[in-house]
Amino acid sequence: MTQHLPAPAPRTAAPAAALAPPPALPRRIVFLAHRGLGNPAAGGSELLVDRLATGLTRLGHEVTLVCGGPAEARPYRVVPAGGGLGHFLRAPGTFAREVGACDLLVEVCNGMPYLTPLWHRGPTLCLVNHVHTDLWRMRFGGALAPAGRLGRRLEQWALAGAQRGNLTVAVSPSTRRALLGLGVAAERIRVVHNGVADPGPAVPRSAEPLFLAVGRLVEYKRIDLLLRLWERVRPVTGGRLVLVGDGPERARLEQLAGPGVEFTGHIGEAHKHRLLSAAWLLLHPSAVEGWGLVVTEAAIRGTPAVAFDVPGLRDSVADQVTGLLATQESAFAAAWCTLALSAERRRAMGEAARAHAAQFRWSRTVGAFRTVAAEAYALAGRG
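Now predict its structure.
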């Protein structure tokens, strides 16, 4: 997959505090997001915002994150605005009291919108990881279906209506297509891919079959499906299935789990990368993703992925090259067994995955986002 991203910003010997963005760039940038990286439920979206905010801070911008609690200290300013759904109601007031003004407001639009164009008159940029159209149906079924329909309509109105005068950043071609499907104008959308960090030293690959799934334990990640498939795969491959992450589905999933399954709960980055290095395969049964950041994190470790051919994952997994994509449950199980039983094919796909992941660096992500931020600032007549 050819990526059209700007080159990393040149290195400089000057300390970050001495840097200042050029006049054509917004100096004070505020991100508005549901969660910060310190939240136990933080995932790929929160990591992306953290990398953007940290990178922009190093380039001399004054960056603030207004988010739901709990929050933790970061290289940029973090302003908590309460948790739960009430956070979306409190956020405008928190912004007015604690921030007051900025040169660019970045609304992280992941499902429930903040409707910033209704209460903020300055330059605004919308950041979208993935559109929640199908997830509203999955999360709100049965008696809650009316709430799901309301959520879908609100999201569509916010992205295609309330934000129609602003630029929108999508994290993948899949997210771009979903936005077009909602009615967002093509000329408003810019694609900025996630990056991946230098992983540091690797640990040896596990001698026994080790299969890994990483992510929040929520419905749309479909770990229950993975557990059912494991019952088919385990007699063929043997080994262990390790599930990294926590969430509201954990208790139910633990009851469904058979032999050879291990739940780690939430773990640190170093532990996660040790597991990514040791694993034979990364398994990603999710129904939809914006990009699937853990796929790239596994790839930089030389670990191929088996996933479903769904939005986001069809962007981060190069089918038959860096991993295998399946369209049906039986095909997923077959791909899992095929790679588990072929060390040579796993090795070849792992090397291809490592080379593919090398295209994605957070410095390039920050540079690409900064270019869009400058465009949004100029379009608003503030450049």
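The CA atoms of residues 53 and 63 lie 6 Å apart.
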